[in-house]
Design goal:
It is built from 26 helices and 7 strands. The protein has 578 residues and is of the alpha/beta class. The chain is globular and about 80 Å long. The two termini are 28 Å apart.
């Protein structure tokens, strides 16, 4: 998958993995060495009856399945991750999908299993049916179902999930009673209000439903986290902070909630408090909360945290420290233009226009269509006395985007650092942290007889290393995956990304084409189009983007890339660029 896009995906676990790795390990320790484990992707259940008042149960059963799998120590994509993937394909979250489409999305996400199902009510009883689709090799497991009154929904779905796990894995070690004990008790009325709140399209109904869920079950953190997100999305940080503060360390959203608290502190112009939050998150990630604490991950810094920490430091006047963390964030994510932009802004305010121009130029290279990046590059060049270069940039912008494309951006180098131009990262991906803890602590990753880890585990570890900017370690993991599965499309895609970051474009193309031989994918073709574009081979890039859209007609990233390519001027003397 596209590594830039994958930052929107979250994997849910039963505890905050980045902070409490022992929790995940303790749960996984209950699994026998012969027991199968994998990554689950759950889709909404379909209402096959005639009662629209139960439509909320579609996403409700999805959410309940995710929670129960997570509570039992399984790896599972969150509702947000699944919905984000559908959004990439231009599909609504509740779209009815064919099994082939679900299989393709599961492949693109490197899930091992897909769960989908249906429900029906005769007015008295509810029947829930669940299907499990194995990704590789594709196989559909016999469905399981339970029937009972709606009031017994929680117990019914617990049985459905347990029977689904047992049907897939005959050696599943937990009896139904033990499995049920591992699940957090939920009130049906609170759960219904929570799901209705999550599904609401307007803020006020969403807030009303979520507040009622929190009132009915005040010890359930999920409504509190959702309320914090909703208030923060409205820009009401004063209301969001108390709700985020109710998310405990044992909850999977604890890291995201604390990150959101830091974002609110920045928005409230409280850089000292924001710094404390982001430093605490960094210490938590590295296991440095207390003397003698165990390091939970091997240096997998998250650029979003570093970026916001840099902004807090800059606003406090700690310029050198801010510069260092911005540079590190820039190195970790070579596709994101916000990090070099903030670095350039820091240099511009210090009247170091040469350094500012260098950072803004890097931002432009990463995001050529961002007019603000280009405007500040030109302004930096002007102030540095490089008039010829500035005029050259102006002409390039005018040719590509029209004579009035540049916005008016004013920066006073002598002003304080609290600028509206600062780019605060508001979303955090903790997938890297959770996968690293999982792979380091799961007995399923390494068998008791010393056999090599599975290809899927190597791929996840490779992506974790890639997200941390450790290309050599990432390459080793992807090659290890290919050693056990030579035709693995995801491993070839991972190697392609390693080569792309090393500017070895021909090697990246070879790996992407190998990936396509195993399975055709809109994601891979879009990535291939980007590599061709970076080589200025616009005709080839357009062809791949068009093939991607043929596979997934609503795929937003492919559409945006094709729109960008249509605006590219062909270079003279190069037939591939025509």
């Amino acid at each position: 998958m596209s590594y830039r896009v994958s930052r929107a995906l979250f994997v849910a676990f039963a505890c905050a993995a980045a902070l409490l790795p022992s929790c995940v390990r303790a749960q996984n320790a209950t699994r026998s060495s012969s027991s199968q484990q994998g990554l689950f992707l759950v889709f909404p259940f379909e209402n096959s009856g005639s009662s629209p008042r139960l439509d909320w149960l579609g996403e409700g059963l999805e959410e309940l399945t995710i929670q129960y799998l997570s509570d039992a120590g399984e790896q599972v994509y969150s509702h947000a991750g699944r919905a984000g993937e559908l959004e990439r394909y231009g599909l609504p979250s509740s779209a009815k999908l064919s099994r082939a489409t679900m299989l393709r999305i599961g492949q693109d996400l490197d899930a091992d299993y897909v769960i989908f199902g249906s429900f029906n009510s005769d007015g008295t009883n509810l029947t829930v049916e669940s299907h499990l689709l194995r990704i590789s090799p594709p196989a559909l497991i016999a469905p399981v179902s339970e029937t009972g009154p709606l009031s017994s929904l929680m117990d019914m779905q617990a049985k459905v999930v347990w029977h689904t796990l047992v049907a897939n894995d005959k050696s599943y070690p937990l009896a139904l009673a033990d499995f049920s004990k591992s699940l957090r008790p939920l009130r049906l009325d609170a759960f219904e209000h929570f799901v209705r709140g999550v599904l609401a399209n307007e803020d006020e109904p969403r807030l009303r439903e979520l507040r009622e869920a929190a009132r009915l079950d005040p010890n359930w953190p999920d409504p509190a986290y959702a309320l914090g997100e909703t208030y923060a999305g409205k820009g009401d940080c004063d209301s969001a902070l108390p709700w985020f503060g109710r998310v405990p360390k044992t909850n999977p959203h604890y890291v995201e909630a604390n990150f959101a608290i830091g974002v609110c502190r920045l928005r409230l112009n409280q850089p000292d408090k924001a710094e404390q939050v982001f430093v605490s998150l960094q210490d938590s990630i590295h296991g440095n909360e207390a003397p003698g604490a165990t390091r939970s991950v091997s240096g997998a810094d998250l650029p979003e945290i570093l970026n916001n920490l840099g902004l807090a430091l800059a606003r406090e006047g700690k310029t050198q420290d801010a510069q260092a963390v911005f540079k590190h964030a820039t190195e970790l994510d070579p596709d994101e233009d916000d990090y070099p932009f903030n670095l350039g802004l820091l240099a511009f305010r210090a009247s170091d226009f040469i350094e500012a121009a260098a950072s803004f130029r890097e931002a432009v290279q990463r995001e050529p269509d961002n007019a603000e990046d280009r405007a500040l590059l030109i302004q930096s060049l002007d102030r540095a006395g490089k008039k010829a270069e500035a005029d050259e940039e102006r002409n390039a912008v005018a040719e590509a985007f029209g004579p009035n494309a540049l916005p008016t951006v004013r920066v006073d180098p002598k002003s304080d650092a609290q600028s509206h131009l600062d780019r605060v990262k508001t979303d955090l991906d903790v997938t890297t942290l959770r996968l690293e803890v999982l792979s380091s602590g799961s007995p399923a990753a390494i068998s008791t007889n010393g056999e090599a880890t599975s290809a899927s585990t190597h791929i996840r570890q490779g992506r974790q290393e890639l997200a941390g900017g450790r290309l050599e370690l990432a390459e080793a993991q992807f090659r290890a995956a290919l050693a056990s599965d030579p035709n693995n499309a995801s491993a070839h895609l991972g190697l392609a990304e390693v080569n792309r970051r090393r500017y070895k474009y021909d090697d990246a193309i070879t790996e992407l084409q190998a990936s396509l031989k195993d399975r055709d994918s809109a994601v891979v073709r879009t990535t291939l189009a980007r590599v061709y574009m970076e080589q200025n081979k616009f005709a080839l890039a357009r062809a791949e983007a068009q093939k991607a859209l043929a596979l997934a007609p609503n795929y937003t990233e492919a559409k945006q890339l094709l729109d960008h390519l249509q605006n590219q001027k062909p270079a003279t003397g190069s037939p591939q660029s025509q």
